[in-house]
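haha ok so turns out i had the wrong file open the whole time. this is the CORRECT one, sorry everyone. sequence first:
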Amino acid sequence: MIITAHPRGPPELSELATILQKQLSSNFASATVVVVEQCPDLQQPPFNLAAPGLSGYPWIADIGGQSNLFPTPNYKAQYSLLQLARNLQNSPSGGAVIGAGAAPFQDIGRNAELAPNLAWEGYGDEDFEGDSLKVNNLTRVVLADRGGVPSCQRTTSTNCALMMNLYGSSGRPGPVLKVTARGRTGDMNFTNCIRFGLRDTYGDSRPISMGGVFLLKKGKAKFHVMPDFPTADELPFRDREQLEKEWLTYHVFDAPVVCLSVFHSADPEGLGLRMEHTHCFETNGNIKGGHYHYDIQDGDEEVEYEAYLHPASTLYRIDRPRS
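then structure:
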């Protein structure tokens, strides 16, 4: 495993709040961004995270990449979320990860979307295992069958594959950005609106990497769900257009949907970062979920978001594909 570390020096949360308030107000009819000194317990509904907060040694990791899927899958790209946390110097005494990536085909027997939502406490051995290690695994797998019918399921696996974008921390309550937005008036989706505001403010001189959770409270949004791997006769993918138009399945789901997000304002080091990645799930059913694209404003129905976000102090790039 090849790991490179890239320190980030994010501004104060109050400075970020001012920037995001202005940016979101240009794209939504109503928006607020404030610093909440004590994050609400995100373990509780409607967010249902595995840890109560986003604070304590915040980091982001970009693992693998889309080149592990296209033009043919790299079946050797298999990872343990807990071992990744140890490699990134997370304390085994406690921590949490959330994010977006590919499901562990090595465990579930097929390809799918993954919304990792994992926390742990206690001490394990060097393999991050042991009787004293307590893991709270609320990770979801979102699948699509050959007919494109989606399903959202809990998984006991603590692994992932191919590509993953993680936000990690000690999982403690602490100061965060609380973001609300309602009634989209512009062309940008929720996450791109935020990251473009950071990009336009700081450019390449001060890249910001951020992660957290947001709730699609009202309205509806478009998602894609990866089906199982193509058969040997169907590979390799001719091009990305074929992958996107002929292989992925697309769905529109109504709120509420919980979304785990990681994004960057810029990639000045040329790390081949996935600039935004958001995977979503429902907590009161077994259908809704997948990769977030954008909300859909339909008639008089307004979309509404609520988010809790935090910048990372360190960015890790892991096993960047050569192509």
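The chain has a mean pLDDT of 93.
again sry for the mixup
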